[in-house]
Give the backbone structure.
Amino acid sequence: MPTVSDPIVPDGAPRPRAERIKCGVLQFGGEFIHCGEPMQISGTGFHSVYAPMSTEDPAVDLLDVYLATKVLQCRCGFRMELPS
């Protein structure tokens, strides 16, 4: 399977220079690709969309809005968290 560092190039076409190939995350359809391979789900969770406005305990509990997330991980250890 070709990877980001070994792209498929038609016969006769110039091969890209190594410094032009950068590692990053590529989204292809519903897949996220890093290191040339699809990332795998390594966990899920819920996180509040609000940052605390104070370090003290609030006198009144406010309603929080939570966002469901999923954590994707590459075999190299790179991780990223996305909304589900």
